[in-house]
Amino acid sequence: MMAEQRERTFIMVKPDGVQRGLVGTIIERFEKKGFKLVGLKFVWPSEELLQQHYSDLASRPFFPGLVKYMSSGPVVPMVWEGLNVVKTGRQMLGATNPADSQPGTIRGDLCIQVGRNIIHGSDSVESAKKEIGLWFTDKEVVGWTPANENWVYE
Q1: 8 Å CB contact between 39 and 85
Q2: pLDDT tens digits for 108-145?
Q3: 148 appears as a binding residue in the annotation
Q4: Is this model's pTM higher than 0.85 or not?
Q5: Residue 9 labeled ligand binder
Q6: What is the CATH number of the domain that holds 8?
Q7: Which residues contact 39 (CB under 8 A, 6 or more apart)?
Q8: 14 belongs to an annotated ligand binding site
Q9: How many other CB atoms are found less than 10 A from the CB of residue 97?
Q10: Which of 10, 120, 128, 135 is catalytic?
């Protein structure tokens, strides 16, 4: 498999997505697209972990509320692999504000308000590496070859 097909992204179902029972729906969308799941957890994150995760937003006025909200219940962090998975994953999520998200996107179809936008996705390859390293150990990200790979990639 060519190196660019091994690009990885970090996707996390937020507490509202977990509470609404949307984990399976979100996984299904990434699987149907043809991306490969290589890491998955169900965790109740600490405020400390979330402060690290969202450190780039630390100076923003909404930061304390974001950390409090994200630590209010379990989340499902995942690692997905595939060609252009960071960019395509962001397109699949839709705009941060669901009101600006197109129908057919996860946020466009499944949520209404920015404070309950159900999912996080890495915004760059560099962010993905940082976020994956924060949430997963090397042993928790599994390299494998799905049987359908030749039907997804030429």
Answers
A1: no
A2: 999 999 999 999 999 999 999 999 999 999 999 999 99
A3: no
A4: yes
A5: no
A6: 3.30.70.141
A7: 77, 78, 79, 132, 136, 140, 141, 142
A8: yes
A9: 14
A10: 120
